[in-house]
Amino acid sequence: MIQVLRVPARKLLLSAVLLAASATASYAQLGVGRPVGQKIVDGIIAKVDNQIVLRSDLETIYAQEVARAEGKPLPPDTQCRILQSLALNKLLLAKAETDSVVVEDSQVKSELDRRMAYFVQQIGSEKKLEEYYNKPLKQLKEELRIQVKEQLVQQKMQDQIAGKVSVTPREVRQFFNRMPKDSLPYYSTEVEVGQIVKVAKTNNKAKQESQAKLNDIRARIVAGEDFATLAKQYSQDPGSAVEGGYLGFFKRRELVPEYEAAALRLEPGGLSPIVESQFGFHLIQLIERKGDSYSTRHILLKPETGTADTNEASQELAKLRRRILSDSVSFAKAAKDNSDDKLSGGNGGLMQNRRDGSTYLSLDQLDPAIFFTIDTMKVGSVTPPLPYRTDDGKDAVRILYLKSNTPPHQANIDDDYQKIAAAALNEKKNKALDTWFAQNRGTVYLEVDPEYSGCQLLNAVN
Fold first, then answer.
1. How confident is the model at residue 378, as a pLDDT?
2. 247, 106: one domain
3. Are residues 45 and 79 in the same domain?
4. Which domain holds residue 256?
5. Which residue, among 386, 424, 418, 379, has the nearest Cα to 402 in the 3D structure?
6. How far is residue 293's CA from residue 252's CA, in Å, rounded to a whole number?
7. pLDDT tens digit string along 324-362?
8. CA separation for the pair 167, 229 (Å, rounded)
9. What is the rounded CA–CA span in Å between residue 219 and residue 380?
10. How many domains would you assign to the chain?
11. For residue 263, is pLDDT > 90?
12. Is residue 180 part of a domain?
């Protein structure tokens, strides 16, 4: 018999609510089960309204914690803590459903593609990823899609509850002063690294070759060959190629304008002419219109860049580097005005720590290529242009800037203000979430397997 408990609120750690919200090097975080040869008896261990927590959910995260502990024993309440976080996730989802909080399919697809590209890159190839999980890539994506959508909804709920919370410098200092001096965290070596990226521009010959190849593919489809089969064979969009080029439904203004305009001029089943966008050249087939949404499939070809294209980008960055070193422009302004990586460019070129949003990166978070480059650099120096491949596979060049290199030390308010401010903000957001849980705990019920009844899930705030 499953025990039924009224759900109260409890203190919430934001980092625990979305345990796998960001991709990391742990393949278990793919969220699509375990590698081949590793099996576990599954079953429902908790329910929050119509949301369920599976035993495998808990076991997967527990396995990650065991791996991170590197042989050290875990606290005895580890499984309860994980289950508490999972139950809180489900409470957010249950309330999101009640409050009609949704995320757009385009956002889900974008995050899904990013994560899949990351895992393929880490393990080496799509084939190796399929062998690792003993599942086809399409099935892996579908299983991960559910997790990604839930996490985005949870994050949206949190943003609505505590997104406007902020802290003042005075509150940050008060937070630090409350910390026991003998329990201050000890930070390992951390660096701040900036980059300015220039993507190699494709020359006309390469563009013409891609267009000609795509026109040949179009002719084959018109002659009777299957679009989906050719998409799997030729398309260079890794996210959709495995699904025969199928992108799913999108609303107006959710896809790049060139693609959308060409797609909406078609009748269902019709083929577009060759369409150029920032991603390359597309051949588009409209599948269906449904209200203000439409579904398509496409074949994408990306023109290859050559040495001459990369050299041009290198020369442009070399000139920019000379201006930075002569103090005629700051690295931050140069990055903002010139970098093709808009995420870091908008941050003055500085790379962000995905764990806490700061610009301080521990050495184990760095790409090996960056680590071995900055290892011999002095603070304030800028590298010559270096070859680089962007996350979406484009040939590029970048210069790297070492802004700071902080040796291992115990936390202090001067050197670690940014991290302490993030912790103070996190605590304040926790309190806002506590208030929300207290107000909403009576609207849902929790069912928990007797094996875990001692965990006291979602206990009321003291």
1. 95
2. no
3. yes
4. 204-301
5. 379
6. 7
7. 999 999 999 999 999 998 889 989 999 988 777 788 898
8. 55
9. 55
10. 3
11. yes
12. no
